[in-house]
Amino acid sequence: MLEDKVIVVTGGAGLIGSRFCQAIVDQGGIAVVADLNLEAAEKTAQTVGGDTRRAIALKLDITDKVSLEAGIATLRDSFGRIDGLINNAYPRNKNYGRRLEEVEYADFCENMSLHLGGYFLTSQVFSAYFAAQKGGAIVNMSSIYGVMAPRFEVYDNTPMTMPVEYAAIKSGVVHLTRYFAQYYKASGVRVNTLSPGGVEDGQAPSFLAAYAQFCGTKGMLDADDLTGGLVFLLSDHARYVTGQNLVIDDGFSL
Length: 254
Fold this sequence. Notes:
This protein is α/β, with parallel strands linked by helices. It has a single domain (6-247), classed as Rossmann fold, CATH 3.40.50.720. It is 41% helix and 15% strand. The protein has helices spanning 15-26, 38-49, 65-79, 105-133, 164-184, 205-212, 227-234; strands at 6-10, 30-35, 55-59, 84-87, 136-141, 189-196, 245-248. The protein has a seven-stranded parallel β-sheet with strand order 3-2-1-4-5-6-7, with helices on both faces. The protein is globular and about 55 Å long. 42% of the residues are buried. The mean pLDDT is 96. GO terms for molecular function: oxidoreductase activity, acting on the CH-OH group of donors, NAD or NADP as acceptor.
């Protein structure tokens, strides 16, 4: 479904990003593992693509316009075009994830700037490139907690919480998507959101059980559960889909 499409995945060396890169390669595309950690990106590219050059590493800072423009220039020179961007990076400062009463204003603002601001800047730079190219697809990663209030009860008796910054950021991502989709819809640039439920990553069994009570047959997802929706949004099958938010959560948000 992505035959020879060049797709940039920010945060491509992470848990979800690496699975997205694998899905792109599996569907015949070229995955650009874009990450601030170049060493991790190179390892992921080797794992995903081997010696096929179907996956390449790119050092990229989503909060730095110079880095973004240089990355686009490098890919344009290497491949002649870029077909898609997945805004998947998850930047945050060392104080991210505190309970509401403990969040400092400066930390809240910094995390909003890094994450939502980074998605804005990356979308701004890539959208301009795609518009000049007369085509391209952007998928922004949001979350169920970008479209619903937190279910705090699933965090009872755990050290975890649902960070207030996350809720503000991910809801902002959904509307940022609509803004860019509306602004560029006559330019051949499609912009959509993918909003997953929770992804399993070593959480405590008690949390997984509490979470699963609100779901259908799966509960917490695996990263691979998101790839079908992602591939669709990037593919020509979705050529007339823009400004939409695809929720994949096994019914958690119902």
